[in-house]
Amino acid sequence: MTSLSTPVTWVDAREALPSSGTPVAAAITGRYPADSDADAAPGEEFWLVRPMYFTSLHFGADGAERRDCFVDSDGVVRLPYGLDSAETVTHWAELPTLPGEMTTRAVLGEGVQAALQRAWSAQPGS
Q: Euclidean distance between the first and final Cα of the chain, in Å?
């Protein structure tokens, strides 16, 4: 088995935000299930990592406009920690490059098979 590891640098979302359109790994916190009933016991607290992208301007399906937010693949919008949101992003990190690739995070079409072959044949430390 070839070890293809990469370092992750986490950024505190209270201190800096990524560029608009950047795909990131986002550490989010909140409670599940989310409570709307004030008399019910609060849900269990969580902190987990999800792939998301950051955008400086987002228009939701409900027409709501949000600025400087993180959006997941289901269209769920989360704000940076400390802002008014049931689930917030505490930290974010740039996604790593693809295995065996030095600077590439996405390959489409005809280049996929060649990129996969490079990753599968990569030597440790390469």
A: 13
pLDDT at position 6 over 80: no
3-class secondary-structure state, position 91: strand
Q: Which residues of 40-65 are buried (b: 16+ CB within 10 A; e: fewer)?
A: eeeeeeeeeebebbbbeebeeeeeee
Using one digit for the tens of pLDDT, what is the confidence trace for 47-101? 999 999 999 999 988 888 999 999 999 999 999 998 888 899 999 999 988 887 7
Place of tokens 């950024």: 11
Compute the distance between CA of residue 10 and CA of residue 89 in angstroms, rounded to an integer: 12
Mean pLDDT value of segment 25-48: 82
Say if residue 120's pLDDT is above 80.
Answer: yes
Phi-psi category of residue 6: left, alpha or beta, with phi > 0 → left and psi -120 to 50 → alpha: beta
**In sequence order, what are the beta bridge partners of 79?**
88
Instruction: Please choose, from the candidates 57, 70, 66, the residue with its C-alpha nearest in 3D space to the C-alpha of residue 17.
Output: 70
